[in-house]
From TrEMBL, chain A:
<feature type="region of interest" description="Disordered">
    <location>
        <begin position="19"/>
        <end position="51"/>
    </location>
</feature>
<keyword id="KW-0173">Coenzyme A biosynthesis</keyword>
<keyword id="KW-0808">Transferase</keyword>
<dbReference type="GO" id="GO:0016791">
    <property type="term" value="F:phosphatase activity"/>
</dbReference>
<dbReference type="InterPro" id="IPR004567">
    <property type="entry name" value="Type_II_PanK"/>
</dbReference>
<dbReference type="GO" id="GO:0005524">
    <property type="term" value="F:ATP binding"/>
</dbReference>
<dbReference type="GO" id="GO:0015937">
    <property type="term" value="P:coenzyme A biosynthetic process"/>
</dbReference>
<dbReference type="Pfam" id="PF03630">
    <property type="entry name" value="Fumble"/>
</dbReference>
<dbReference type="GO" id="GO:0005829">
    <property type="term" value="C:cytosol"/>
</dbReference>
From TrEMBL, chain B:
<dbReference type="InterPro" id="IPR036075">
    <property type="entry name" value="ARMT-1-like_metal-bd_sf"/>
</dbReference>
<keyword id="KW-0533">Nickel</keyword>
<dbReference type="GO" id="GO:0016787">
    <property type="term" value="F:hydrolase activity"/>
</dbReference>
<keyword id="KW-0378">Hydrolase</keyword>
<comment type="function">
    <text>Phosphatase which shows a preference for 4'-phosphopantetheine and its oxidatively damaged forms (sulfonate or S-sulfonate), providing strong indirect evidence that the phosphatase activity pre-empts damage in the coenzyme A (CoA) pathway. Hydrolyzing excess 4'-phosphopantetheine could constitute a directed overflow mechanism to prevent its oxidation to the S-sulfonate, sulfonate, or other forms. Hydrolyzing 4'-phosphopantetheine sulfonate or S-sulfonate would forestall their conversion to inactive forms of CoA and acyl carrier protein.</text>
</comment>
<dbReference type="Pfam" id="PF01937">
    <property type="entry name" value="ARMT1-like_dom"/>
</dbReference>
<dbReference type="GO" id="GO:0015937">
    <property type="term" value="P:coenzyme A biosynthetic process"/>
</dbReference>
<dbReference type="InterPro" id="IPR002791">
    <property type="entry name" value="ARMT1-like_metal-bd"/>
</dbReference>
<dbReference type="InterPro" id="IPR004567">
    <property type="entry name" value="Type_II_PanK"/>
</dbReference>
């Protein structure tokens, strides 16, 4: 009853108009007007834009990227893109002091169309990708995540970078359409790497539609491999959230020395939640999980509000005031509850005020609960519980760093604030909530890195 | 709405009520009060006898009936003005309730911190009510409830324990000692979230309705299961396809969410999903918080949990699952009342008012006869509406009861030999025999008060009530906790007392005591005439068994005693069969006694008359002659024809006038009488008079003798002690004889040395 699958997405299922407009545009354009002109291995979306390599330092915030943003997008979307494309203030995790940290290896870069990618490190194992691209999908309960390689545009001296592109789709069909278009030189000898529950469910469909073999990679191993790779190679992969700061200052990069990465706790929030204890790239275990994750947030959100997508729901939550529906300590005790050291504003019971709604409404004491207040309360209830649970697991295994993966957080300030607050509060400042730029793609990246089939051929 | 009749049934003895306290909740209000009850004087010791007693009444009623209940109390109780009433509350709207109570009863109101009330009240329930704790096992077909008693004893403590209160939110408190506790965690995802979201989802927050829906619903229609994500191709993953991956996960598809609302089962399916999501989350947070705790004693409290099988089931499952079996969820039968009782205990005024019982310093016992049926804990689906169901009454023992200190610490003590919850055949037998015997008991009772014009009518009520209770037990054997012979008998005693039949066998006992006292010299002379010490002790032991044949509680014996011929002690000696007996450790017992193994003995006695006077006293004399100390322990309060402490004092006065040896030892202090503090035909070693506990240790008792069917067979047959023990009884019922593989009047003479723990 309680078990969860490992890598689950957090998005509504098929056909839902999501806020990620650029992707939707793409999926539509690919299904209607296949752009056969584009070179087979290049990312059709990012190739045209100038590649900007950020070398930021403390205090210097690059706001340039913001100008790329489409104003019609929600704050959430913009923040998502901003974080995937820009560099923020950096803090060295190891000594805790803010260091000027010059990027050594790879940096993320972004195209104007918002489909992000990173430059793969110059390693022998990736050279083969110059000749033949590789694709990997992570098919979760609600979303399909795709990563694939492409060759970047020539540099000044004529060298090219290998790029790793990130895409997500609301349904397997959209993803297949996209793959048919981008993956031109595929044949029956090719492998599509796949992980996530859907790699079982849709294996036959993928084989039939694409005419390639599907190579399944272990879900947990993929998740960890992906996380390890990103933390090692993308200096600006992880960041912390500081609500007390202003604007972009709220986000702080937390680069980490390779040797200090382990151990850590990885909390993957998808439809449900998985908590993984990671001691090394090869030694890890699933220590717990919960059924109350992204699925519960969107599912209950769909049943209780008029929001038609995850982003709309988050927007509603931003506007809401949970105090209208939750029971606060002050609602029970009339003020602080000194005996337990609980402040008046602390939530004593989520949705506590709603349980007497009928009664109070009959007395003319209140109106119906507003949907934005419901959305806010729901978000707080779920993210607080996740935060508390994450802390409790970190405490049990004496882990100080907790990385959050999956597609639930979406760099959404309320979620990040709640999670950071919960971790800080429960651990009395000992533990740290760390967010990942590519939070949703860990499994896909890990699956991508499985090169056994290529190696066999050689 | 409550009727006057319902209030009369629940709010009893208000005219003698003394102190009140309230626990004001969102849905229900609990009132607790003490009252003085009329009771036959009980002689507690030679200097002190107690007239009347104190009772604690706990009643649970719907929030909406507060006005009515307060008016009813005000009308019945007389003048309360100037008194202070304690209350505790966990919601802000309590001000209105406080005003109603204050104005209607014309009292001062004192607020007591709710967390302290919960802890105090839980301490009280744990230390006073047997079988208060239970674990829920949904898959056990015979009985889903497994009861436990947690008492402080020399070998174990109820502390520390963890209290999880699931109310609007959920809080986890560790209780370290009687007064020290700390908050160790909590969550705002609790009962409020369940009822609040239910209200928002389906427009109802009615507990009864929701829980029925949750039982019937199918969460798989709205949750994402493992099979939804993996398809049906998950072989080898070791994940059951029905496992929930994400609660409400299917509804994260907007189209699906729109459609599912039109499903006729939508309401119950999503309530079930909600319930599972929240109880799983609670179970997980609790087991994580308790990961580093030293105790696995974990009690769930709160209206969300109370008597709701589906919640108990999911919480138990979640706790077991997340803790990998290290923790087990426990529940309390009467936790509904813990805060109100705590408020009463914590009330300052009452404590300062000397001359009244200090609730915490004495022991209390469940007064089954006064609790209305459901209040005695019958788990059920509907809840708050059942007003009659919400009554608990406790009687003050006026003394402090403690576990018998010589119980073996290495073996868990369970007084009852047969658990009628799990042994269906035994349950049927006992319920039937109790039903059959009730009229006989009633005629004895009427006889004992033959000058009272109301006796016959009262006896009819007793019979009716007792039969009703037995019927209830047939349906729901766990209504008292573990169903056993002991509480079937106790219940009968209580109902008799409730209707002013303090002691139906009073005259009978007096008659038989007098007869036996006159007979005693004959028996003693015969024994004293024997030269061989060992033979003499053997004969005395046989006498102990013969005495035990006299018993008005056993049908077969009643036939003998009511027969045409006089049933003499000598005839009883002849009834005792020749050796070897059914259980025959006589030789071992004699060997140990001859070798000076027993320097100080304590004898728990059974019936009055021949049993105690002609059986036990000569037996005691033999040990006195061997130079041992002897203490005879009787009941404190009447039960059947068992001798009470008051009667024993009277008997000893008469005996010592005639018996030089007993007189000498009584004066020397080597022979004494005490009481167990109990009033039952059985003996529950978990709770005996603390004075007795002290004496047993001071006297360095090295042999425990228990005699009689009730004390040595129905209870304590398997009890292990730290010192040698002798269990002696004659089997006087056909059923038990068959069960034990013997015949009627078979003899049990079970001598056991303590099991030595080899480190």
């Amino acid at each position: 009853m309680l078990e969860l699958s490992y890598s689950l997405g957090g998005f509504p299922l098929n056909g839902v108009p999501l806020g990620l407009k650029d992707e939707e545009d793409h999926t539509q354009s690919f299904s209607s007007t296949p752009s056969s002109s584009s070179s087979s291995l290049s990312s059709p979306s990012s190739i045209s834009s100038p590649v900007v390599i950020h070398t930021s330092s403390k205090g210097r915030i690059l706001t340039r990227s913001v100008s790329h943003f489409d104003e019609s997008k929600s704050y959430t979307e913009r923040m998502d893109e901003l974080l995937l494309s820009s560099s923020l203030r950096r803090e060295n995790t190891l000594d805790g002091k803010g260091n000027d940290f010059v990027t050594k290896r790879t940096t993320s870069i972004s195209g104007s169309r918002g489909a992000p990618f990173i430059v793969l490190p110059k390693e022998e194992r990736f050279e083969i990708l110059r000749e033949k691209g590789r694709f990997a999908v992570d098919i979760g309960g609600t979303l399909v995540k795709l990563v694939y390689s492409s060759v970047g545009p020539p540099d000044g001296d004529g060298t090219t970078d290998l790029l790793l592109n990130f895409r997500k789709f609301q349904s397997i069909e959209y993803c297949i359409d996209f793959l048919k278009d981008v993956w031109q030189d595929r044949n029956s000898e090719c492998y599509l790497n796949g992980t996530g529950g859907g790699s079982f469910k849709y294996a036959e469909l993928l084989q039939k539609e694409l005419g390639v073999k599907v190579k399944r990679t272990d879900e947990m191993l993929s998740l960890i491999t992906g996380c390890d790779f990103l933390l090692r190679n993308n200096e600006d992969e992880s960041f912390t959230y500081h609500h007390e700061a202003e604007g972009l200052e709220r986000y702080q990069y937390k680069p980490i020395e390779e040797k200090a990465i382990y151990p850590f706790l990885l909390v993957n929030i998808g439809t449900g939640i998985s908590v993984l204890k990671v001691d090394s790239p090869t030694s890890f275990s699933r220590v717990g999980g919960s059924t109350m994750g992204g699925g519960a947030f969107i599912g209950l959100g769909n049943l209780l509000t008029s929001a038609r997508s995850f982003d709309e729901l988050l927007l509603l939550a931003e506007k809401g005031d949970h105090r209208q529906v939750d029971s606060l300590v002050s609602d029970i005790y009339g003020g602080d509850y000194d005996h337990l050291g609980l402040a008046a504003e602390v939530i004593a019971g989520s949705f506590g005020k709603c349980s007497t709604l009928n009664h109070r409404r009959a007395q003319g004491l209140c109106e119906d609960a507003k949907e934005e207040d419901i959305a806010k309360s729901l978000l707080l209830m779920i993210s607080n519980t996740i935060g508390q649970m994450a802390f409790l697991y970190s405490n049990r295994f004496e882990m100080r760093r907790i990385y959050f993966g999956g597609f639930f957080i979406r760099k959404h300030p309320i979620s990040m604030r709640t999670l950071s607050y919960a971790i800080n509060y429960w651990s009395k400042g000992v533990c740290e909530a760390l967010f990942l730029k590519h939070e949703g793609y860990l499994g896909a990246v890990g699956s991508f890195l499985d090169m056994t089939e290529e190696q066999k051929k050689e | 709405m409550l009727t006057i009749n319902e209030m009369e049934c629940a709010l009893r003895n208000l005219c003698a009520a003394e102190h009140f306290s309230f626990d004001i909740g969102l849905r229900v209000i609990k009132v607790v009060y003490t009252s003085r009850i009329h009771r036959h004087p009980a002689i507690v010791n030679e200097k002190f006898s107690k007239e009347g007693g104190t009772r604690l009444h706990c009643i649970h009623f719907p929030f909406t009936d507060l006005d009515k209940v307060c008016e009813y109390i005000a009308q019945k109780v007389g003048n309360l003005s100037g008194k202070t009433v304690q209350f505790t509350s966990t919601h802000k709207d309590s001000e209105e309730c406080v005003r109603i109570i204050r104005d209607t009863l014309r009292v001062k109101m004192e607020r007591v911190n709710d967390m302290r009330c919960h802890v105090k009240g839980t301490n009280f329930l744990l230390s006073n009510i047997l079988d208060e704790v239970f674990v829920y096992d949904h898959h056990n077909v015979d009985c889903r409830y497994f009861f436990q008693t947690c008492l402080n004893s020399p070998h174990s403590s109820v502390y520390p324990y963890v209290l999880v209160n699931v109310g609007t939110g959920m809080s986890i408190v560790r209780v370290n000692s009687e007064s020290d506790f700390e908050y160790i965690g909590g969550s705002h995802c609790g009962g409020g979230a369940f009822f609040g979201l239910a209200q928002l989802l389906i427009g109802s927050a009615d507990m009864d309705e929701l829980l029925v829906m949750a039982e019937d619903g199918d969460h798989r229609k709205v949750d994402s299961l493992v099979s939804d994500i993996y398809g049906m191709k998950y072989e080898g993953l070791g994940l059951p396809p029905d496992l929930i991956a994400g609660s409400f996960g299917k509804c994260s598809n907007t189209k699906f969410a729109d459609q599912v609302k039109n499903d006729p089962d939508y309401r119950k399916d999503c309530i079930r999903s909600l319930l599972l999501m929240i109880s799983n989350s609670i179970g997980q947070v609790v087991s994580l918080v308790l990961n580093n705790e030293k105790t696995n004693r974990l009690f769930f409290n709160g209206f969300m949990v109370r008597n709701h099988p589906i919640i108990m089931r999911t919480l138990s499952y979640a706790i077991n699952f997340w803790s990998k079996g290290a923790l087990q969820a426990h529940f309390l039968r009467h936790e509904a009342f813990n805060a109100a009782i705590g408020a009463m205990i914590l009330g300052k005024e009452r404590l300062e008012n000397h001359g009244e019982v200090d609730i915490e310093k004495v022991s209390w016992r469940e007064h089954y006869a006064g609790c209305s049926d459901l209040g005695r804990f019958v788990p059920r689906r509907p809840t708050d509406a059942a007003f009659r169901g919400e009554v608990l009454e406790l009687d003050c023992a006026d003394i402090l009861m403690r576990p018998f200190p010589l119980l073996s610490p290495s073996v868990e003590y369970d007084p009852d030999t047969v658990d009628l919850n799990s042994d269906l055949a035994a349950r049927e037998f006992w319920l039937t025999i109790m039903e059959e015997s009730v009229h006989k008991m009633c005629s004895k009772a009427i006889e004992s008060q033959h000058d009272s014009p109301t006796a016959a009518a009262r006896a009819d009520v007793v019979a009716k009530k007792y039969l009703e209770q037995l019927k209830l037990l047939r349906d729901k054997p766990f209504a008292y906790g573990t169903c056993n012979v002991r509480n079937l008998l106790d219940l009968r005693e209580q109902i008799f007392q409730e209707h002013d039949f303090d002691d139906p066998f009073k005259l009978q006992k007096k008659l038989e005591n007098d007869l036996a006292v006159r007979e005693l010299p004959k028996v003693v002379t015969k024994l004293d005439g024997m030269d061989d010490v060992r033979e003499r002790l053997a004969e005395a032991t046989k006498g102990l068994l013969a005495g035990n044949v006299f018993d008005w509680g056993a049908k077969e014996v009643v036939k003998l005693m009511e027969g045409k011929e006089e049933f003499t002690f000598q005839k009883a000696m002849d009834v005792v069969p020749a050796r070897p007996w059914l259980n025959d450790d006589l030789d071992e017992f004699l060997d140990a006694s001859m070798n000076g193994g027993h320097k100080s003995i304590v004898v728990f006695v059974d019936n009055s008359g021949a049993d105690v006077v002609l059986g036990v006293l000569p037996f005691a004399r033999e040990f006195l002659k061997l130079g041992s100390k002897v203490t005879i322990v009787s009941n404190l309060l009447p039960a059947l024809n068992d001798i009470t402490f008051g009667e024993l004092i009277q008997v000893m006065k008469e005996v010592t006038d005639r018996d030089e040896l007993l007189k000498r030892h009584t004066e020397k202090g080597t022979f004494k009488i005490m009481h167990s503090g109990q009033g039952s035909p059985c003996l529950d070693m978990r709770r005996v008079d603390s004075e007795l506990c002290k004496a047993v240790l001071d006297d360095k008792v090295d042999l425990v003798v228990i005699e009689g069917m009730g004390r040595a067979l129905h209870t304590n047959f398997n009890a292990q002690f730290m010192v040698p023990s002798l269990k002696a009884a004659v089997i006087k019922t056909r059923w038990l004889a068959d069960r034990m593989g013997g015949d009627i009047f078979s003899v049990v003479c079970k001598y056991e040395k303590p099991i030595v723990d080899l480190m």
